[in-house]
Amino acid sequence: MVYHGVTVTITASVVGLGMAKPSFLRAEQSMASDRTTYRPPGAASTRRPDLVFVVNPLGANGRTVKEWKKLLPYLRSRLGTDCNICESLTSGPSHAIDITREAIREGADAVIAVGGDGTLHEVINGFFWAGKPVSSHDRDSSHRTALGLIPLGTGSDFARTLGWKNDPHEAIERIAKGLRSYVDVGVISGESGDYHYFINVADIHLSAKAGYYAARYKRFGNLCYVIGALQGFIGHHNEDLKIKVDEAEWESCSQVTALCIGNAKYFGGGMKITPNGDLHSGNFEVVILQDFKWYDFILKLHKLYEGTHLTVNNVTSRRVQSIEVESVSGSSNIFVQSDGEHLGFLPRKFCILPAAIEMIC
């Protein structure tokens, strides 16, 4: 069926109850002083909440959709009597963004990304439009659509920050319990005036270039990040950058190898690059690696995975609410990515949006 412009498949548990059109549960806004709320499905209304599951059938080389099909019977039995379960398979890049926006506008109670960091990244961007949060057409301002995640991807770096495993049954239990918490989101702007959102880690230069190449080798699992890093080092040169932190004066950073802006902690298939990243802090952790050589990564790779690299020479860390980054030389080929997605090149500005999304956790 077509769900307000988005093609979805309604699971058998919903069809069997004769639901011709999704119905929506009015969710109460939590108090600003308490970011965590508990809302068991159906607790606030006799009407059943609508949950939209966004699935990338090509995720993890097709493994995501296979796991999803296996999961559906359990999902129906666990949630189908309390919720309207709407399944939507993406058809290509950015489709998850469109699905999410339509679901929010129609008052869905939650949009749940099924897959890895790439699918989650698109869903996050669907929560915003033209620099503002997307809102429901028909619901009052107290209603907020929540974000959910069933991690089934190659890297699942965001799930690591929360201590979650790639266990879909655990994820369904989280959804069933209804515990929610407000999380911060990062927003990136550039010379074009467009906005791009991220929930995990954004990064610049070598790490971003490595991520760009790694996307070509995802069939190799987490090994793709190592292959991407090796390819990224070919022809790599450290660059002098200038940064502006929290609207203060410009600062110079010489011979930058990588600059990482963490809302969460992990990237690159398990590297704990911003070990002090905190989704509830209202700040980014910015980690800058300077004057690294190719052999530094080989010798110190274990520290990157353990999150102990902040003690290494030429590695600095700081807490910021915003940071602008430009090339001193005016180079137009310094890579930028966020949540593992290539975004183009410098210059860019990164800002934190505190408690921007309510997440099922």
TrEMBL record:
GO terms for molecular function: ATP binding; kinase activity. It comes from the Eukaryota. The keyword Kinase applies. Coiled coil: none annotated. Residues 46-192 form the DAGKc domain. PROSITE patterns: DAGK. One of its GO terms (biological process) is phospholipid biosynthetic process. This is Diacylglycerol kinase, catalytic domain. It comes from Dillenia turbinata.
